[in-house]
Amino acid sequence: MKSPDATGNVEMTLQTLLKILNYSSDEIFVLDGEKRILYVNQTCERHYGLKPTDVIGKYNVELFEKGYWKPSIVPEVYKRKKPCYLKQQTYIGAELLTSAIPILNDAGEIELVVITSTQSQTFKMIKAKETGDELKTTHVEGETEQFITNSGKINRILTFCEKVAPTDSTILIQGESGTGKGVLAHYIHRISKRKSGPFLTINCAAIPEELLESELFGYSKGAFTGASKSGKTGLLEAANGGTVFLDEIGEMPLALQAKLLQVIQDKQFIPVGGNEMKKVDIRIVAATNQNLIEMVNDKRFREDLFYRLNVIDIHLPPLRERKEDIIPLTYNFLNKFNQKYHENKVISEECLNILIYYSWPGNVRQLENLIERLVVISDSIISVGDLPDLITDNVKQITQLALPTSLDKALDETKRILIRRSYETYKSSRKVAKDLDISQTKASKLIREYCEDLLNERKS
After folding, report:
1. Tag placement on the chain: N or C end, fewer CB within 10 Å?
2. How far apart are CA 292 and CA 274, in angstroms?
3. CB 432 within 8 A of CB 443
4. How far, rounded to the nearest angstrom, does the alpha carbon of residue 427 sit from its chain's CA centroid?
């Protein structure tokens, strides 16, 4: 910024202006007459988990159709050519109070539209301070979870789930603890023809072996000492017409595995202590973090049950293999716990960078637990100093090991990151060339060099 001139006016550089806009607590979008995004400040990262570079140059409808927010204010403002106001919900859980102001040219046509969005939680906090009232918000425990993702891997899994959900095929979801296997199972149920039926979960590792059978299959009156006189309906019968999610299926005792196999094959079973066969109409979705093939080889899991469960096999990748999900998930959990604890905490850029570098052995569950802790213990801005030593020490080791040993290696790694990110977004050499301002020939060569796995995925 330059010094004031003789009239007291200050000339501001573009760089200074952009820096000021990025410090705004409000999201600012600027669209042209064709509804293409010309500018967005860094607040969009907090609302959608997207960096400005992921947004600028795209048409507004591209992001809307991907579900990043709803409803859209854009059609109304372009139709009316007058200021419009709307309440919106983002896919990572932020509620926005949005205004769209059209800027018209001399012919009365829209030249630009300036859209600003304030997070309603922030607005409520300000209003509460002004009036002296206590802020009250509602948090619904156990509400339906959804997949928050910017990952190509996860999006391909969700597309696959859309194909198999309408069937009654048994599904086996495999992945490390905390990757979201239960969330995916619930998602499959919600888009299936059984969505109006019950979705019941049982964790095979959390219930003692002697109780698991009666929980699953129920029991008849007088089946054993201490049993209810009227008997008990089991989970399988209670889920009739819906979906049963068997979490940690690898922990199910061998004796029960045979009985479960009969349910999958014949959709019938006999309750504990009973002699009457019961029929059920259920879909089984199972999940495990164990290697079931190894367990089959070691005679700890029935081979016939494994193949019955493994009709549709889904592998959920760990969080360290989908780093692009860390930012949107972080803001999703930040919104969630800000509402739960009546807070309005924000997270610093330095803190976000450390979360991206961390390896997340506990996956999404570990990230969620960390954000809850940070919302509870931090001041208004969550900083690096609020992070546990376990995370900061681990990141120091990773970054030191990851430092390139030469300039050539550093340049090569930068090229690899840029090419992969661009190709994952645009899926064609022509668009990558335009995005990175290089020739299409060079783009094609670099894609073959750095994106072989992505090319193979597309071919398959």
Report:
1. C
2. 31
3. yes
4. 22
